[in-house]
Amino acid sequence: RTVEPLEYYRRFLKENCRPDGRELGEFRTTTVNIGKCSITTADGSALVKLGNTTVICGVKAELAAPAVDSANKGYIVPNVELPSLCAERFRSGPPGEEAQAASQFIADVIENSQMIVKEDLCIANGKLAWVLYCDIICLDYDGNLLDASVFALLAALKNVQLPLVTINEETGLSEVNLKQKNPVIIRKHPVATSFAIFDDTLLIVDPTAEEEDLATGTVTIVTDEEGRLCSVHKPGGSPLTGAKLQDCITRAITRHKEVKKLIDKVIKSITPK
User: Fold this and answer.
1) For the chain, what is the HEC assignment?
2) How far is CA 14 from the centre of its chain?
3) CA-to-CA distance for 117 and 217, rounded, in angstroms?
C-alpha cells in the first residue's frame, strides 16, 4: 500500500470492491446533526460526517441595505474553510486554492439550484434585506469535501429561523420582533454526489482522500428533488463518455433520495411535538 498504492488499489478494484470494504457505488456512513448541539451562537447550524470527513456549517443572519442594481434582493455569502487542523496537507494563513474553489462551487450551487431565491430575503425594497453568511468549516478531512459541504449547508439553512422585521413608517427605522420567527424559504434541496475516476474508465463514488490522490479525475453531480441537474463540476482530469456521465447522474438521483430522507428524519426528531 505504501510502495505501490495504485497497484494495491487496482487489485481491489478488479474484484469490484475497495480497501475499506465498500462496493464501488457505496457511500460511507453518513450522519447529520442539526441545530443547537452544533453551534449555539449561529442562527442555524449543522454537523455532517461522511466517513471520517467532518464538516460543520453555521449560518449567521444580518441586516443590510440591498445593492443598488438589485434593490429587491438579499445576499447569501458562502465561505469554505480548510484549517491546518483538518489535515496535514493544509496550511495556516489565507484560504488556499482548494478552499477558494470549494467556496465558488457552493456559491454556484446556490445560484444554479435556486435553493433560496434572493428576492425572498428582501424586507423592504431598496431599503433593507437579509444577508446570510454561511461558514462551512472542515474539522476532519478525508476526501469528498464538496458532498459534505453541500449537505451541511442545506441542513443548516433548514434550521435557520429569522425574526420578523418591519420598518417603522414614522421613524424609518427597522424594528425586530424576536418573539416571532419564520424559517428561511428553501425552494429546492440540492444534493451533491462526487465520483473519482480510476485509470480513465472506472468510477467510484464518495472517494476518500487517498482515492482522490490516486484518481485520474473527479466529477461532482448536483441534483434537486425533481431529479433536475443543477450542476456538473469537473475540474480537468480524465474525460467522461456520455454513457458514464449518465450513470453518474442516475446514481446522484438515488443519493438525493437517501440524503433527503436522512435530513427529514433528523428535522422531524428535533421539531417540538
Assistant:
1) CCCCHHHHHHHHHHCCECCCCCECCCCCCEEEEECCCCCCCCCEEEEEEECCEEEEEEEEEEEECCCHHHCCCCEEEEEEECCCCCCCCCCCCCCCHHHHHHHHHHHHHHHHHCCCCHHHHEEECCCEEEEEEEEEEEEECCCCHHHHHHHHHHHHHCCCEEEEEEECCCCCCEEEEEEEEEECCCCCCCEEEEEEEECCCEEEECCCHHHHHHCCEEEEEEECCCCCEEEEECCCCCCCCHHHHHHHHHHHHHHHHHHHHHHHHHHHHHCCC
2) 32
3) 33
Residues whose CB falls within 8 Å of the CB of residue 263, separated by 6 or more in sequence, listed in order: 32, 34, 154, 155, 158, 189
First to last CA, the chain: 51
How far, in Å, CA of 198 to CA of 5, rounded? Answer: 13
What is the arithmetic mean of pLDDT over 202-228? Answer: 93
How far is Cα 53 from Cα 49, in angstroms, rounded to an integer?
Answer: 6
The Cα–Cα gap between 195 and 210 comes to 13
d(CA 267, CA 246): 32
For the chain, list the domains and their CATH numbers. Answer: 5-270 (3.30.230.70)
Measured CA to CA, the distance from residue 132 to residue 107 in angstroms comes to: 12
Is pLDDT above 90 for 173?
no
Predicted confidence band of residue 167 (pLDDT cuts 50, 70, 90): confident
